[in-house]
Each structure stands twice: as structure tokens, then as C-alpha cells.
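DATA SHEET
Item: assembly model
Revision: 1
Owner: S.N.
Input lines:
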Amino acid sequence: MIDLHTHSFFSDGELLPAELLRRVEVLGYAAVAITDHADSSNLDFIIPRLIQAAKDLNRYCQTRLIPGIELTHIPPGLINELTKKARELGARIVVAHGETVVEPVAPGTNRAAIEAGVDILAHPGFISREDVQLAKEKGIFLELSGRRGHSLTNGHVTKLAAEVGALLVVNADAHAPGDFLTLQMAETVALGAGLSRSRYDQLRRDMAAMVERIR
Ligand SMILES: [Zn+2]
Ligand SMILES: [Zn+2]
């Protein structure tokens, strides 16, 4: 099991990175990314601390901690600049907080994030076919969300991604201990959204390959 989008109390999550990692280690995870919410105010605060936590904890844990960031409610015109800055600071996974239907995320965020070359476009809401196509061309993962509210459009994302052949991930977007997905629940999120068994197996291989790439 791998999850590439979770929150610690460096933003609005409930857990310290060490406890988050321990909780998913007990669930048998191979890897987890902590991707706390950030804008210009805290990017340089969060990333170095997650890198330090990963450096220390990865020496002792079965689960690999990947330091990441979720660029959240960034004006579309600023997303490219902050994506570059996040990478310069050492974020190994850059998630963009996409156009979920349950928050007033600025229109154009999905497109700007894809053009900026983030790694994962999270909860992209009613993403357009053109944007799914561009994500495919750029090798950017679209997320099926395990989080209430964000998950409402998983069926839409699955349908377009399957038609176009775009990459998908399943992430919990966990904020609290009860939010982490088991392997069984992750499968339910994907298959329940209409993904075929074979495409789901491919999704798990793609996620594993991504973790290998950033090792
Ligand atoms: Zn988000
Ligand atoms: Zn999130």
C-alpha cells in the first residue's frame, strides 16, 4: 500500500509526522507522502522540516516517508512559480489542490497545475477532457480521492482518464487517524468509481513506479 497525499499538523492534520508514519507502518504501507497545505507563507517552513523528519525516521521505519507539499488555493498565475520553489526547497512530491466541487478553488487551477508540471493533481472536480489529455501528455497523475466531498467526482475523473489513458492515483488525503485507507478500501474507492480491475492493477503498479523514481 502506498499513499501520496496526507496531512500532518504542519497544516490541518491531527498527527505529528512520526505518529502518522507509525500508524501507516502498522497498516503495512510501503510508502507514504506527507503533503501539507502550503502557499507562499509557509512553503519554506514546512518542506525542510518534513525532509528532516524523513531523514531521521526512514532509518528506523518499514514505511518510507516522502516529504511533499500540497499547493493549496494558489492563484493560478502563481502556481508555476511556487511549484519551482517547492522543488528547489526539496519537496519530492508536489501535489496541487485541484478544483474540487466542495470548495471555491479558482477556475483555471487544474490547467495551471498541469502546465506547471506538478506530480499529482488532487481532487480535480469536473476536470475538462482537454485538461485530462494534457495531464496524460505530461505524465501527471490525476487523483481519485478517498476524502468525503472531494470524492464526489471520482466517477467523472475515472471515466475521462480511462477514455484518454491518463495516469491515476488513489489517495486518502488523510487528516486524522481514522482517514488512512487500507488496501481493501483503496480498491473500493477505485472500483466504486468505475475503474476496471485491470486498470486498477495498473494504477497500483504506476504508484509503485513513481515511488521508485523518487527514491
Ligand atoms: Zn487538497
Ligand atoms: Zn490534501
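QC remark: The beta strands are 2-6, 31-38, 64-71, 93-97, 120-122, 141-145, 168-171.
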